[in-house]
Amino acid sequence: MTTAGMPPIPDDPSRRRPPTEPAPDAVAGLAREVEELRKRVDPLTELPARVDAIARLIAQLADTVTNLAARADVAPPPSWLMLPDDPGAARELLDALTEWMARVFLRYPDAAEALPECWCWHPDVVEELVWLMHAWLAAYQGKHASVQLVGDWHDRQRPGVVRRIRQGAGSCSLENHQTRHGWTTTSTAAPTVPALDALDAIAGWWGLDRDQPAPEPAQTATGVGTW
Fold first, then answer.
1. pLDDT per residue over 4-29, tens digit each?
2. What 3-state class would DSSP assign to 90?
3. Dihedral class, residue 139 (left if φ above 0, else alpha if ψ from -120 to 50, else beta)
4. Confidence grade of residue 206 (pLDDT, cut at 50, 70, 90)
5. Dist CA 83 CA 97 (whole Å)
6. 3-state DSSP call for residue 115?
7. How far is Cα 192 from Cα 60, in angstroms, rounded to an integer?
8. Among candidates 217, 129, 125, which has minimal Cα distance to 174?
9. C-alpha atoms less than 13 angstroms from C-alpha of 190 in its C-beta half-sphere
10. Crossing angle of the two packed helices 47-73 and 24-45, in degrees rounded to 10
11. Which own/partner contact pairs does 207-211 have at CB distance under 8 Å and 24+ positions apart?
12. CA 194 – CA 191 distance, rounded (Å)
């Protein structure tokens, strides 16, 4: 700044202040702050990947919970081998089973051929048929019925049961469960469940005295069984 009438004051380089250089301690402190900031920022670069991993984990957990809930909705099938000591419960299960056998199981020629007329004298055969019936109900009529379950029933479950019945009891007959011979052959009419008139006796035996010998099929002079 100049005053009117006065000449400007010349610039004296000696009067200039040299620029202040930062102290070494300040530089080191700043470096430490920058390094600390970098350590805090670096994990944030991995955040999107971690979020994606958590999202996948949540989806997997949701699927697991859904599958467990679906399994919980399916009632367990009854077991003939573990049925309570109750003739009424045994007969009720036999009635449901024979109705299903007449409507579904015996409509398959290989099943009708493999099933012996003494099927209800074989606890293992009854057990096979009971679970196969409930597998069919779950596939066709259950809450989670599906084409996949139907296909599995046709391709694997039904043929497997038929094969085991044929191998285990297919050559058996009522004569093998009595001391007399000459039992008549089965009818060739529309599919019917063999030995329906024996179910009361079978239910009484299995409901109360399953550890004792099974009731012996009686025989009349004409060869027709009576009970």
1. 566 665 665 555 555 555 566 766 77
2. helix
3. alpha
4. very high
5. 14
6. coil
7. 49
8. 217
9. 3
10. 30
11. 207/83, 207/85, 207/86, 207/87, 207/88, 207/89, 207/90, 207/91, 208/85, 208/87, 210/123
12. 9
Q: Given the structure tokens 């019936």, which residue do they identify?
A: 133
Distance CA 88, CA 32 (A): 85
185 band by pLDDT with thresholds 50, 70 and 90 = very low
> For 31-73, what is each residue's pLDDT tens digit?
777 778 777 777 767 767 766 767 776 776 666 555 555 544 5
Helix intervals (H) in the chain: 24-45, 47-73, 87-103, 109-114, 123-140, 147-152, 158-169, 199-208
Contact 182, 219 (CB under 8 A): yes
Give the per-residue pLDDT at 220.
Answer: 41
State the CB neighbour count (10 A cutoff) for residue 171: 9
